[in-house]
From TrEMBL:
Domain of life per record: Bacteria
Domain FAD-binding PCMH-type residue range list: 36-217
Keyword annotations of the record: FAD, Flavoprotein
Taxonomic source organism: Microvirga brassicacearum
Keyword Zinc among UniProt keywords: no
Protein name in the entry: FAD-binding oxidoreductase
Length: 475
């Protein structure tokens, strides 16, 4: 059956675009973090929406599962097949056309396999701006960004991918295609099908194209690195900057002092703008579409007010683009520093912004009681309530012992998140990593409705099995 299917798929996409050799398949079978490794009968690389639809129809007829994959940058194993080896991986990277750029309507229509950085560059070439910005923007694709409802550093001003998308094109498991590529801001004709597929991690249909929102290109930026006593002070500063600067506030990134220490230890091309590491810090950025020479003055005035109110300890305002990039390098170096420091339990949570300080205090205390010596290393998009709450092993603990206690620590962090009515995944998705937790943290009625939708769009369960939706057979 599989051999017959492979021949049929080769007839659809071309023999060279059906990979069956183990060495050729290998890069598609392991996630980039090295947490998950699977197997597949083949890796299929369609060149357009019609080919995606035909591949899906063939796989459904053969009863073969399909795992969609873009840039393979998932943080939660959402694009990696299981070890059984019967699925195919559907790689969309050949679908990399920018179909249309409309600078008047401020939209761009793209294939799902277009790399995020290419979208940013195309927008810039048209005198426009696409605001999604991620560490993996040089390799992640728009389809993957949509499948996980990616956020990034500019959510505070521009929103997540759901807010940045007007229309979608989706191929279904039975081979049908929904052409929802409408560049409309208003369409009050019933249910918003678009919103079902954004964040669905390829479990309902395969996104093959999208209409994205563009914005005027920022012509002025003002960036500051600010030292603070704690998270409560950061929240007070956030309120003051928002009050004075309004929608000009583009980014408000929170970093603990312990996190900065790791960056300084492991990343060679960084420099702290202060004489010593503060207890906490925020990276603040304002932007404006006007060439506003007063933008820096507006940020400075906000920081002066905060200093007079004893909210901040110190602040450095970037004197030009080079220094601004050096501030951002401190933020961008965190992931590299964490990898180099050693084993960590990583959590991507969101809680109501006003509860962030209380959440950190409670989670820190619970973690310390359960595993003395474990080191909380935190950073995140404080302005939208998204915190990357990472736990490094105690310095006298080996990896095996830490691996044994890590699930307990994750349960503690997620329970505290739920107590605050937060989410166990803010921007990285559920994938394989958190699928077992869904039954604990989603209300039964939510899971019931999600599974009902799955049954409508993918009744045979062939699309990205084992991701996002928990097995409800025992519930």
């Amino acid at each position: 059956m599989v051999t017959t299917l492979v021949a049929r798929l080769a007839a659809i996409v071309g023999e060279k675009n059906v990979l069956v050799d183990e060495a050729a398949k290998a890069p598609f079978l392991q996630d980039w973090l090295g947490k998950y490794r699977g197997a597949a009968a083949a890796v299929v690389r369609p060149g357009g929406t019609d080919e995606v639809a035909s591949v899906l129809a063939a796989c459904r007829e053969a009863g073969i599962s399909v795992v969609p994959q873009g840039g393979n940058t998932s943080m939660s194993g959402g694009a990696t097949p299981d070890p059984a080896g019967r699925a195919i991986v559907l790689s969309l990277t050949r679908m990399n056309r920018i179909r249309d750029v409309d600078p008047v309507g401020n939209t761009m229509t793209v294939d799902a396999g277009v790399v995020l950085a290419a979208v940013q560059e195309a927008a810039k070439a048209a005198g426009r701006f696409f605001p999604l910005s991620l560490g993996a923007e040089g390799s992640c694709t728009i389809g993957g960004n949509l499948a996980t409802n990616a956020g990034g550093v500019a959510v505070l001003r521009y929103g997540t991918m759901r807010e940045l998308t007007l229309g979608l094109e989706v191929a279904f498991a039975d081979g049908r295609v929904w052409d929802g590529l409408k560049a409309l801001r208003k369409d009050n004709t019933g249910y918003s099908l678009r919103d079902l597929f954004v964040g669905s991690e390829g479990t309902l249909g395969i996104i093959t194209g999208a209409v994205l929102k563009l914005f005027p290109e920022p012509k002025a930026r003002a960036t500051a690195f600010v030292s603070l006593r704690d998270t409560s002070a950061a929240l007070s500063l956030l309120a003051r900057v928002r009050e004075r600067c309004g929608d000009r506030l583009t980014a408000f990134e929170f970093i603990t002092g312990d996190c900065l220490t790791l960056v300084l230890r492991h990343v060679g091309d960084v420099r702290l703008p202060f004489t010593q590491v503060p207890p906490a810090a925020v990276l603040v950025e304002l932007s404006d579409s006007d060439d506003d020479s007063a933008l820096g003055a507006r940020l400075e005035a906000s920081l002066v007010d905060a200093a007079e109110a004893e909210i901040i300890l110190d602040a450095a305002i970037a004197q030009g683009a080079t220094q601004a990039r050096s501030f951002w390098r401190l933020r961008e170096g965190i992931s590299e520093a964490l990898v180099r420091e050693g084993r960590a339990a990583k959590h991507d949570v969101s809680v109501p912004v006003a509860q962030m300080a209380d959440f950190i205090v409670a989670a820190d205390a619970a973690v310390a009681a359960a595993a003395p010596g474990v080191r909380p290393i935190m950073f995140g998009h404080l302005g939208d309530g998204n915190l990357h709450y990472n736990l490094l092993k105690a310095e006298n603990t080996n990896d095996a012992d830490f691996a044994a206690v890590a699930p307990v620590l994750t349960r503690i962090v997620h329970d505290e998140t739920a107590r605050c009515r937060g989410s166990i995944s803010a921007e990285h998705g559920i994938g394989q990593l958190r699928v077992a937790d869904m039954s604990r943290y989603k209300a039964p009625i939510e899971l019931e409705l999600m599974n009902a939708l799955k049954a409508v769009f993918d009744p045979t369960g062939l699309l990205n099995p084992g991701k996002l939706l928990p097995d409800m057979s025992n519930h």
